[in-house]
Automatic annotation (TrEMBL):
<dbReference type="Pfam" id="PF13379">
    <property type="entry name" value="NMT1_2"/>
</dbReference>
<keyword id="KW-0732">Signal</keyword>
<protein>
    <submittedName>
        <fullName>ABC transporter substrate-binding protein</fullName>
    </submittedName>
</protein>
<feature type="signal peptide">
    <location>
        <begin position="1"/>
        <end position="20"/>
    </location>
</feature>
<comment type="similarity">
    <text>Belongs to the bacterial solute-binding protein SsuA/TauA family.</text>
</comment>
<dbReference type="GO" id="GO:0042597">
    <property type="term" value="C:periplasmic space"/>
</dbReference>
Length: 329
């Protein structure tokens, strides 16, 4: 009888132990993304394929629609991490913030916009932009700064050689182009390809191909968050790296099928075409390391746009230790 009781107690102990192990909750991480864009395909792959859960994280994603709103969410602790342009970390640093944002994982490495003309331009040259109305992006944001940088590379002064319009909110730019007088516009995918399919515009050039590598969209968090939660930041980076490698080794069709739940209003065919366009110009970073050459290219673009508040050292705002450890291990 005693042996039976001992066996039951041991069994119960094992059950309690196993239950306790299985009930261990994942760590919750709140992410603020600057916009919803298939440019961020690796992030949606990580979510849909369960890569975050594999490392013990529950990721809550919110779209904050704009760099200023995204950084406000991060700095006010409305989000633990932000997916936004690296330039925003420089703006925050220049305001003498005591707990500034640190870039720890890069997601995209080129500009993600395309030059779309209202009329067909089979023999397009950048000279065609002179004396036209160009609907650009928000002043001080990466799309607009890269846009101006590329125009200058082709001998076009954005302020004097064309009518540059920058007074339209990001979400309203596509509609303003269709209903307005602008002859050219700077658009992300899948809007650019959708416009082309519907006859509302024609893709004539890629700003990503023209501008070279730049830390266009990165994950950042406050230094205090890294100090307190470095293991979770490492886990997050590990999941993103796995997603980057997944995107690199899978076809546009396979990627589109996985991320379609985040773009329910876009046809699978259009998603596939847009992803293929981004893959062909190497827009998706294949690892999370933000290197110094890319950082210097960012500062050069900001400086030429007159938006670089100060020359912030790479070592001050970029943490590559976490990403490098993830890749090594």
């Amino acid at each position: 009888m005693k042996k039976i009781m001992v066996f039951i107690l041991i069994s119960c102990g094992l059950i309690i132990t196993l239950t306790a192990c299985n009930s261990k909750e994942n760590t919750s991480i709140k992410i603020a993304e600057v916009t919803r864009s298939l440019f961020y395909a690796p992030q949606y792959v990580a979510l849909e394929e369960g890569f975050f859960e594999e490392v013990g994280l529950d990721v809550e994603l919110q779209t904050t629609w704009g760099g200023d709103k995204t950084m406000t969410a991060l700095l006010s602790e409305g989000a633990d991490m932000a997916l936004v342009g690296a330039e925003t970390s420089i703006y925050v640093y220049a305001q003498n913030s005591k707990d500034y944002a640190i870039n720890f994982a890069q997601l995209t490495q080129t500009d993600g916009t395309f030059l779309v003309a209202k009329e067909p331009k089979p023999n397009f040259t950048w000279e065609d932009l002179k004396d036209t109305t160009f609907l650009g992006q928000r002043k001080g944001g990466m799309p607009q700064m890269v846009g101006e940088f590329v125009l200058k590379q082709h001998g076009i002064n954005p302020q004097t050689d064309l009518d540059l319009q920058q007074n339209i909110e990001f979400a309203n730019i596509p509609g303003a182009f269709v209903s307005g007088e602008a002859e050219y516009v700077q658009l992300f995918e899948p809007t650019a390809s959708t416009f082309e399919k519907e006859g509302k515009g024609h893709i004539v050039a890629s700003f990503g191909e023209e501008s070279g590598h730049v830390p266009y969209t990165v994950y950042m968090t406050k230094q205090s968050f890294i100090d307190k939660n470095k293991a979770d930041v490492e886990k997050f980076t590990r999941a993103i790296y796995k997603a980057q490698q997944w995107v690199e080794t899978h076809t546009p069709e396979e990627i589109a099928q996985v991320i379609q739940p985040y773009f329910e209003d876009t046809e699978l065919e259009m998603l596939t075409a847009s992803i293929e366009r981004y893959k062909s110009q190497a827009s998706f970073a294949t690892d999370p390391v933000l290197d110094k050459k890319e950082w210097n290219n960012l500062k050069k673009i900001m400086n030429e746009a007159g938006e670089l508040p100060e020359d912030v050292p790479y070592e001050e705002l970029v943490n590559t230790e976490i990403a490098e450890d993830v890749i090594r291990n």
